[in-house]
Fold each of these.
Amino acid sequence: MAKATTSRSRKPAYRCVECGWQTVRWVGRCGECQAWGTVEEVGLARPAAVTSPGPVSQPAVPIDEIDVEAARAEPTGIGELDRVLGGGLVQGAVVLVAGEPGVGKSTLLLEVAAERARAGGRSLYVSGEESAAQVRLRAERVNAMTSRLYLAAETDLSAVLGHIDAVRPDLLVLDSVQTVASSEVEGVAGGVTQVREVAAALIRVAKERGIATIMVGHVTKDGSIAGPRVLEHLVDVVLHFEGDRSSRLRMVRAVKNRFGPTDEVGCFDFADGGLVSLPDPSGLFLTRRPEPVSGSCVTVTLEGQRPLLAEVQALVAPSALATPRRATSGLDSSRLAMILAVLQRRARLLRLGKDDVYAATVGGVRLREPASDLAVALAIASSATDQPLPSRLVALGEVGLAGDLRPVTGIQRRLTEAARLGFTEALVPPHSGTPPSGVHVREVASIGEALHAAVRLGNVVSLPHREAEAR
């Protein structure tokens, strides 16, 4: 009987290779990270151990007696990054920066390390992908040369820890965590076990010695951070570095931030001399022309809590194909198809079934929110009729399938930003609140009313031959 009981208690154990969650039986989906097909058998389950109380590292104290100076953020010297971090880097904080290859992660972090060194601190930049000479060439190009910035090219965890002991830095930059491996753990560099061990060792050192640590993380094809999901749970801050290689604009977003908000975004201009902060990036998304042209409309998008003006351009041309083309750049293609259907069915002013329609944004910005629907619709109508809209007009509103316009969030911040940049006319949905001074707001309840309001503002009319085709 005892033997049977022992055999039943030693059931095979299964563990998720992504997050380390364990179970006594196989399941298709991990109960912790919800990933499919990641639970594998690892051997026999050990009986649960009973942990007895032990000595504490330091006694618990009343919350009002805890010193908060250690948690104060120190500015990095780069304003847009400080905006996202919530004021700067906290002593002992661990930041994970992820982004596609070539987007500028290494350049940004090299500038951060140089700014900390110039401020009197000591920075250690460890590269696992490039040699120290290659990093120095980049430092010379972006003006990051300073004697208090130390460089090292290592891929072994013990060597990295040795450099930390020798340099005793205030800021550690590891580029990247997937290239460093520990000889004490099985597996190749970048594997689940290695990444977990390397991250845990660096986080432990950062917390014990109060070293602000920034780790670079690779991303997968779908844009998520490579490696185990537990890596995102271990660190204090997770930043995503975004940008199109064909555009100079780069954006940093906070996905997780224990020291500040997660609804801020930092904007940078990726120039030849490195990354330059853009406190007012709206100029990258607008085209300055001496005379207005057809097919162009300006909207205001919200990136986190930050309003940015963006220009939407559309081109409508007769198609030589049996199935007309619908092409987008910076816009959602399915959203464009919906707007075209609403224009034809609800507005009853345009017939675009035999025309090619191209829609794009200026400057490489991506418009993800539905607040830009009205601007897209007006740009298409302006191009189809070959009549320009007023150059000082902004359009805000979500277009519904019934042709109605729905309110959008942050309408006051959007209009205030438009007024600051000199825009005087605005088309908005009903019940949008009190407009700021300097902007004449026209509330329109449907896409048809918006088009008629545009007729009065910019003389946008339907061409006669299109009305004949509609009949």
Note: The chain has three domains: 10-44, 73-279, 285-470.
Amino acid sequence: MKRFFLLIAISLFVFKYARAQKIDTLSITLENVKYPYPVKYFPISTEGQDIKMAYMDVAPTSAANGRTVILFHGKNFGGYYWGNVIKALASAGFRVLVPDQIGFGKSSKPFIHYSFHQMAFWNKKLMDTLGIQKASVLGHSMGGMLATRFALLYPDQTEKLLLENPIGLEDYKTFVPYQTTEQQYQTELKTTAESVRKYYQSSYFTYWKPEYETLVSVAGGVTFSADYPRWAKVAALTYTMIYEQPVVYEFQNLKVPTVLFIGKEDKTIVGKGLLSPDQQTLHGQYKFLGKQTAAKIPGAKIVEFDACGHIPHVEIPTEFLVALTGSL
């Protein structure tokens, strides 16, 4: 009899675990993640593959000012975390274009050569298709590297360059040990919701709040998917892109009005886990990097936020949105 009840208890545990896992499981194209605005798809053909780029195209909700802002997300995110920024900009009269870059969010996850040049080209093609001749470009984190590349390639289509805690303010390959894409892939395969939470807590925010769990639920939820190895491989490919394609040496070549928005407590380093604690203290110091970068860009302005980490639009939304709309 005891064995019978033990088997029942084990079965119930397995059922509950499987059910919890099913609830937490996300597809690697985030079909079951609700975005703040309707999502459309832009078809792209590259390297013999037909793929699609997801995007939100949000019309102004007040008197239209005839201007557009395009938002470039960070490496660990997609368009879903821009909701408050979209709402504020649309309310101020802007059209807001929010792509999920290829390899991220609801967009396709192809095995291709990833490059910031190609991503910039695809975003320019999307703008052309939608009849957008010029836009202010806001890039967060990895999106800051992409926004910088876009402004360098297409200055005539860039009204303003807006960089929110961009990565790539240092050349990581000069101090982070080299990892092959395969080695990075093996690292990505070990990702769990708990490891995501710990990383976000230690790297992205000055104080952890319950509402940040929604970010963890997306990044952690895909790890349960049977297709997660594809997500992990693409994550490794885009890590290599960041490592091998710095923009730090070209800031002085920018020819568009530029504003940096810097959370001063940010200590993000791409490949941080490969460094010793002593080495980590020498890099990723945004309270210095922000000013140093602004000094390299002709005519650049900088807005700094105290007691704020890597994602000002999430951690201090009111202050960030006031600064952003004022800069526009």
Note: Residues 1-23 have pLDDT under 50 and may be disordered.
